[in-house]
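[step 3/7] inverse_fold.run input=structure_tokens len=102
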């Protein structure tokens, strides 16, 4: 299955205001326990990737590396985005199942 289904669902979640974007805001949401799933661009800097992955691991939040910053930004209707946090349990579980079946 292509990533298109993931991007389509991301767009719906973004319109429902269940997506937080931006590296610092994503780290904050993970720390506060609001992030249910984190998506990271594969072209993120090593420093950003490590910071977000370490936070997700420490706080036991599932994360996936998918697409590049332009794909993530386009899916949410914004400019390039390196990191996205999904704050809704339903969207997070559906995205997780789509990402894990590959």
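[step 3/7] decode complete -> sequence:
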């Amino acid at each position: 299955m292509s990533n298109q289904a993931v991007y389509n669902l991301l767009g719906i979640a973004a319109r429902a205001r269940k997506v937080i974007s931006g590296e610092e805001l994503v780290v904050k949401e993970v720390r506060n326990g609001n992030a249910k799933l984190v998506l990271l661009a594969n072209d993120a800097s090593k420093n950003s990737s490590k910071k977000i992955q370490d936070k997700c691991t420490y706080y036991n939040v599932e994360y996936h590396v998918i697409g590049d910053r332009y794909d993530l930004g386009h899916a949410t209707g914004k400019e390039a985005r390196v990191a996205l946090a999904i704050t809704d349990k339903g969207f997070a579980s559906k995205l997780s199942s789509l990402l894990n079946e590959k």
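[step 4/7] annotate
The chain has a mean pLDDT of 92.
The beta strands are 19-21, 37-40, 62-65, 83-86.
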